[in-house]
Amino acid sequence: MAQYRTQVRIIADVLSTARDANIEGTGVGVTTLLRKGNMSYTRMSKLLSELVGSGLLLELNGEKISKYMISEKGIQFLAAYYSFEDFAQSFGLRL
Amino acid sequence: MSFSIAYVAFRGVRQTKSSSLLRLATAFVFLGFGFLVEGLVGLSLVIPAVGLTATEVVVGGLLLETTGYFFLAFSHAIDVVMSKRAGAALLVFPVITLSGTQLANVLSILSFYFVLYGVVETLYSYARTRKPDTLLIALGLSLIGVGTFFQWLSLLYLQVDVLLLLQIILQEMGLLILFTPVLRFAVGGTKIDGPV
Questions:
Q1: Is A73 close to B82, i.e. CB distance below 8 A?
Q2: pLDDT tens across B119-137, in order?
Q3: Do B18 and A88 touch (CB under 8 A)?
Q4: Looking at beta carbons, which residues of chain A come within 8 Å of B86?
Q5: Mean pLDDT value across chain A
Q6: For residue A63, with 0-12 CB atoms within 10 Å meaning exposed, 13-18 middle and 19 or more buried, which class applies?
Q7: Of A42, B4, B12, B135, which sits most exposed with the smallest number of CB within 10 A?
Q8: B82 vs A3: CB contact, 8 Å cut-off?
Q9: What pLDDT does B50 receive?
Q10: Which of B14, B16, B121 best tests the A interface by mutation, with the highest count of A CBs <10 A?
Q11: Which residues of B are less than 8 Å from A79 in CB distance?
Q12: Domains of chain A, first to last
């Protein structure tokens, strides 16, 4: 059964994709983020703007398309997220 | 211990903006103040100079505890709604609340049902995640639940002192178990300072 994803979970999913799929170190395209993030383009665009605005993602402007890379602040957020996810799961809850 | 759990949960709220953690933190703040009032009432039985034996204070403490247990159950209820399945334990909620004649009795039995609901939902979560910590928390909640049941009995049978003693021992043991994830935070050296 599909599970409801909270906003913080969606953010963590996008950030972890931006971290894990950035193998060459040149950033990750929107298509990859869309495929792994499982959401619409409109919603993803809005979320990416918010994440770049809050400093969790870095936007790398290429010739044609923008690519995204996780920032140091984003890595810290993910570490905190996983720690508190573990804490919440201990109480039988989800973040 | 309650305030320590609330503290870690509040740190989590600051960092992740999680509503689940906010409800958890709120639950343990209420529980902490409830236990504090209950402790002071107990202390005033030993040291009369403390002077906190009035029924209003006792009921106030119980009200704080019940509110805490409500938020604990409420966190699970939200989780149930999100996963779009009915919480089986929710069905047993309204049965006994109508039978109570005194407010203290009603609050005690309500607390018992809230904790019972929390236990069932935590066990459901364990079945999903197979995380040993979750099973441990279910055990802790169970002990608190049984303690709450003894608390209710001690209100009915005032002359039986052993019920009150059993309640305190069981609830202390349960809280000690609930404290385990907080200890893991401290031992694991997880950085929890400042919002990200």
A1: no
A2: 998 898 898 888 888 999 9
A3: yes
A4: none
A5: 86
A6: exposed
A7: A42
A8: yes
A9: 63
A10: B16
A11: 191
A12: 7-90 (1.10.10.10)
